[in-house]
């Protein structure tokens, strides 16, 4: 068994996905996150993804790139986790993911 943790593997996969999407996409996605998060009481990453796509942001080659976008906001203390809820997308099989709240910043 590998010494890598599940979190390390997730971070590695998200990082590869973000590099593949490119720095311009990452910056645009982050701006979409900041804008959207300020307009709602709470949200899930899938809400931000939908908002960004509907408003013209291209889909990344791999959806895991959004993990790095959210981690950027977490590291900057701009969002806080409120808890967990089942995802809305049917193909996610009601998997529970984080519910976030905007707490400040750019």
The separation of the N and C termini measures 42 Å
Give the domain tally. Answer: 1
Beta-strand residue fraction? 5-15%
Shape: globular
H and E order: HHHHEE
What do we call the CATH homologous superfamily?
A: Winged helix-like DNA-binding domain superfamily/Winged helix DNA-binding domain
Q: How many distinct helices?
A: 4
The largest sheet has its strands arranged as 1-2
Helix proportion range: 40-55%
pLDDT < 50 runs, ≥5 residues: none
CATH architecture: Orthogonal Bundle
Secondary-structure class: alpha+beta
CATH class: Mainly Alpha
CATH fold-level name:
Arc Repressor Mutant, subunit A
Give the strand tally. 2
Main β-sheet, in a few words? 2 strands, antiparallel
Write down the Rg. Answer: 14 Å
Mean of residue pLDDT? 87
């Amino acid at each position: 068994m590998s010494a890598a943790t599940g979190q390390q593997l997730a971070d590695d996969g998200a990082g590869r996905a973000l590099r593949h999407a490119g720095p311009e996409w990452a910056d645009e996605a982050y701006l979409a996150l900041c804008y959207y998060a300020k307009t709602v009481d709470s949200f899930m990453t899938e809400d931000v993804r939908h908002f960004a796509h509907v408003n013209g942001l291209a889909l990344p080659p791999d959806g895991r790139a959004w993990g790095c976008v959210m981690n950027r906001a977490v590291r900057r203390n701009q969002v806080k986790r409120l808890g967990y809820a089942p995802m809305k997308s049917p193909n996610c099989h009601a998997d529970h993911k984080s519910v976030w709240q905007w707490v400040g910043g750019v």
